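quick one, 68 residues, struct below
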Amino acid sequence: MLEDVQIIKEHGKAKFAVITYTEFEQIQSLLSDREKLEDYLDYLHLQAVKREATRRFSLDEVKKQVGE
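---
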């Protein structure tokens, strides 16, 4: 989402962001549906955690940790 944004500046400062109508509709839909918004925020959080994580665990390691 928001991969193709045009920034319009005024006096050297960002004033407007122009996005495609399709992206506008996606954002509007996302913001009007609480469940979709929560899912998207969870997705963003997971992406941030993945970037910060220094070690990955295998499925077997996770199962062992949780006692399965």
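The mean pLDDT is 90.
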